[in-house]
Structure of Indoleamine 2,3-dioxygenase:
Amino acid sequence: MTPLTEFIFLSVLGSIFTILFSSPWRPWLTKRLSQHTVPFFSLFKGFTLSGPVLAGSTGNHHTTEALNRHKLDTIHDLSDCHEVASSFSALVKQDGAGSWPPKSNHNERTWPAILQAYKEIYHEMAPLLPAENVSLDDTVNEQRIVEFRSRFAQLLTQKVDLAGVEKLLRAADSGRWDIFPKDVYNGFYCCLAWCRHAYRWASIPVVRLAQLEKSIALPEELVVPWNSMQSHFGLDSESGNNMSNLVLNFNTAGDYALKINTGLSSLVQSSEEEFARIFHEVEVLGVPIYSSIIEGIVAHARGDKESCLEHVRDIRDQLRPLLSSYYDRVHDARIARSVWLSRVQGFYAWGVGHQNSTNGEWEKFDGLSGNQVLLFQALDAFLGLEAYLPKVIQERNVPVLQRRFCEVVKRHGFRSELGNEGIDGKIKREFEDIVKRLRVFRSAHRTRAKVYLTQPAPERLPMTAGKSLLKEDMEQSLVFLDQFMVGRLLQTV
Ligand code: HEM
């Protein structure tokens, strides 16, 4: 097949797959795919109705946890031998509070007393954030935004001891994790990110008036600790990111913590949670993949090609349950199309900035996007693909230890060195299978993203969380967004 015919084929396939999975044919399709008798459809083995099949386990939380713990120990044991293992180990130790996905403590009763004020403010402000009936009137919206922000600012002034918070952050920076444990640091980072995004939008659904703001003066209680924590994670955005707002918004038991749509219907609340859960689950199911990437690289460096083949094959197999976390959720029955754009997506956007004091240029920060997910960046690096995100965007949104891990994976990637014959050829074909699965994902993602982005939202201008305000209408905006998605699909070879 020529690249063009293959591209058209994948696009059509992605659309058919999406339509079938959103239709009453879903149970039939799932059953057929799980039997994987048709070679091409073995790509989909592992998809289930209720969520991913966790390889080698009964699918329960504890088994996955035990499996992941074992994988993380293996990586740790290799960390004296190879920098690819030591860079992931450093990520787990420093940002992950000893685990992956990172441990995030949302039980404020265990937090240092001085930080509890932020959680109290969350509890008070969260019910005021969603508007059950959104207004199209700028005057009404302006009043709502002003009231929300002034109540927020008032509570921050009354309750937060900023000097005390700064002292605690300085203690963390000097390694005093005994008084500010890392899992609490992560939970607080998430809470702060929630507060900033809530203050930024002041009303969900996001409205046109707030979208047109160019900059925002956030209260210092939300600025000072944020700057300190961003510098800790090696980031320089005003906006939250995939880690701060999504991955860290789940505790170790997998409970969803800080909410956008408190008090709204169960359809809205479950759509919000299901969407957020994908980003956490991808990192849970990603652990065996990170481990196989690392073990594959180490085995290759040692010239142990049989073992290298096994590890690359494992990545291919683990990708099925991992991608099903996305396929099984991103459809109308789990994430309602009628609510996602207005009531979920907007909160994760940012779209304001400031004048850069060094070069005088206006710097605008975008919000969150799936393009910040570590798993896809690490896989791309292992396949030898160029990074999807430009360096400056990575430095804003992808924590430095994650960036380093991907750089090391890319540097030690060996795909381009493989020959066509013998064991090399076998490893090469496993790589090709991984590429095929990623292409099917990218193609299906293109179709599904379009469906969600084209839902009516008369209160706002076309916008994605990851690219901020778009073109004047959604049709032109989709053309713009499609360039990224098609471009990446074509690069995935
Ligand atoms: C309905 C929800 C979603 C919509 C509408 C959507 C939309 C988009 C759009 C328009 C892009 C291209 C522009 C950009 O880079 O920001 C993109 C990129 C991307 N998205 Fe999503 N997204 C959604 C959910 C997700 C989820 C749940 C994941 C995975 C956990 C994900 C993973 C990615 C990745 C990895 C990219 C980078 C391009 C690539 O690797 O193909 N997205 N998304």
About this structure: The longest helix spans residues 266-301. The domain at 1-493 is CATH 1.20.58.480 (Methane Monooxygenase Hydroxylase; Chain G, domain 1). Residues 236 and 358 are 14 Å apart (CA to CA). The longest strand covers residues 352-355.
